[in-house]
Amino acid sequence: xxxxxxxxxxxxxxxxxxxxxxxxxxxxxxxxxxxxxxxxxxxxxxxxxxxxxxxxxxxxxxxxxxxxxxxxxxxxxxxxxxxxxxxxxxxxxxxxxxxxxxxxxxxxxxxxxxxxxxxxxxxxxxxxxxxxxxxxxxxxxxxxxxxxxxxxxxxxxxxxxxxxxxxxxxxxxxxxxxxxxxxxxxxxxxxxxxxxxxxxxxxxxxxxxxxxxxxxxxxxxxxxxxxxxxxxxxxxxxxxxxxxxxxx
Amino acid sequence: xxxxxxxxxxxxxxxxxxxxxxxxxxxxxxxxxxxxxxxxxxxxxxxxxxxxxxxxxxxxxxxxxxxxxxxxxxxxxxxxxxxxxxxxxxxxxxxxxxxxxxxxxxxxxxxxxxxxxxxxxxxxxxxxxxxxxxxxxxxxxxxxxxxxxxxxxxxxxxxxxxxxxxxxxxxxxxxxxxxxxxxxxxxxxxxxxxxxxxxxxxxxxxxxxxxxxxxxxxxxxxxxxxxxxxxxxxxxxxxxxxxxxxxxxxxxxxxxxxxxxxxxxxxx
Lengths: 248, 268
Description:
The complex is a heterodimer of chains A (248) and B (268).
Chain A: H1 2-17, H2 19-39, H3 41-46, H4 52-81, H5 84-89, H6 95-123, H7 134-158, H8 163-178, H9 191-197, H10 201-213, H11 221-244
Helix pairs in contact in A: 1-6, 2-4, 2-6, 4-6, 4-7, 4-10, 6-7, 6-11, 7-10, 7-11, 10-11
Chain B: E1 3-14, E2 17-28, E3 32-36, H1 43-50, E4 58-63, H2 72-76, E5 79-82, H3 94-104, H4 109-122, H5 138-149, E6 156-160, H6 168-185, E7 188-192, H7 196-202, E8 205-210, E9 213-218, H8 220-227, H9 232-240, H10 251-261
Parallel strand pairs in B: 3-7, 3-8, 5-6, 6-7
Antiparallel strand pairs in B: 1-2, 1-4, 8-9
Helix pairs in contact in B: 3-4, 8-9
């Protein structure tokens, strides 16, 4: 229990202290919101799909969560390189609790980031259909954050150095984001793309966020939530398994 | 007396390279044992295996009666370690590094606070307790690392070149603290060092390892007698030869360089 708390606290403290990281992690979503939201907005409206800024805001929240969460999970690689990982691996606590604490910390940070992006979106002109929807939406953010923190941890447990990091960004994180329907409606895409998106857990996360924030969704909410819960469970178990096998 | 560490036929291979080659030794409870050898001889690999960080290729190990492969959690409960290379969290303060360690090792709050004070004084970092570790010099980091290793009082203490880069004052403080811990709480100490005089003075028993094999074992006096030399340094050189050993540049060094090139501090 203490181990989980300490590992969680570490992630949170580091996040709160790293102002540059916070600003950096907010800059990108802001750019997407402004450039895409305002830039493509008129085209989107002409196509009869409504307000694009409202449509992509949940997608951009999803983006900032997946980026932050996976980055945080990948922190294991830095800790391996700089030695701190060893310190936690020899501690007399189960590796499961270390892994879980780290994942929980990463998820907390990532969902906080998601909330910050929501605030930015509101400043930029986004209005949720109901303000009360923000509460269930936050739980979805937490779930998505947990899922991708666990994924990051899982991948990082298998990597020895940062060389693999770019590979992960380009061949895992970017496709997960772009194929998720964060930027376009899954209701009117070609069947092949929809088929791919169905294998992307972020699709369900963003879809559930849309359900609570703007009242539209491509899949039933129950499907979204159950897939998120099941995949999170799988990633957490696999992550815990890989983490317990780490040798340094 | 019962043995604290018992190793039989331990071998570790990395691909074709044999880092540790069929070594056996046992260390009694409460003993101070020095493990000496040139760079790359297999000292750190052995320590990593004993402390559950690496799996042995073959061989059996018992740490306080538990097998690090079968029951790593039980083994982790019995030891503390000061690593050879850095293992601090640079984005936390000195105090937080100690405090987090104490919590992870289940040191009760009151004891933890008292010991942190005592150890910060011991390594002369009291006034820098709230500074971030990334602002510390190499020597300060080393001292903090040692303080952290001594924060909980385990049954076995592994010290992998603990005095590397320390001034004589801190070295003396460290060894008197370790000897006190050994005398008062019966902590078994397993250490490596390149300072032969230190090993001779502190260790009750010494093993010399080279090319993955233990080539001599006994008290400092035994080793000197065996090699007909007058100092342990001479004995060591006579046992291991005077050729200089190279260790491969680790990926960590490359990373450090890369990180400096990207402008240091923040980890992204």
